[in-house]
Amino acid sequence: MANTTTKKEPETQAHDSQTLQGVKGGVQTAKDAAHSAVESLGEGAKNLAASAAHTADHAAAAVGGGVKSLADTVRQHTPHEGMLGTASEAVAGSLDSAGRYLQQEGLTGMADDVGELIRRYPIAAVLAGVCVGFVLARLAR
Question: Which of 6-20, 34-48, 105-119 has the highest mean pLDDT?
Fold first, then answer.
């Protein structure tokens, strides 16, 4: 049987080597472009999330101002003496405190506080989640 393998000419080998190098360079360029695009998308997502959080914090601060205003209204329009006066002052104090908290912390601060509560009391958090899920399921019927 005859030997069918042929040796390539040096010029052909050089051309194949150059072609291979060109393909490797193209693949590397494509990888770099993809990596750059992914980084750019990641930065855009971070900026969008930061902007949304900032907007939510401003909205929470505005709501906090409204709650504090409601506390002032409760104080002005309810009796100041007796059992009803004590109850209305307690409600107004709670509203004032909640409004101040919303203004100072915003939604991101609230989310951090909720996360801390969940870490501190995981069993109670799971039970609360189950209860909320049960109530929502019953309401959805």
Answer: 105-119
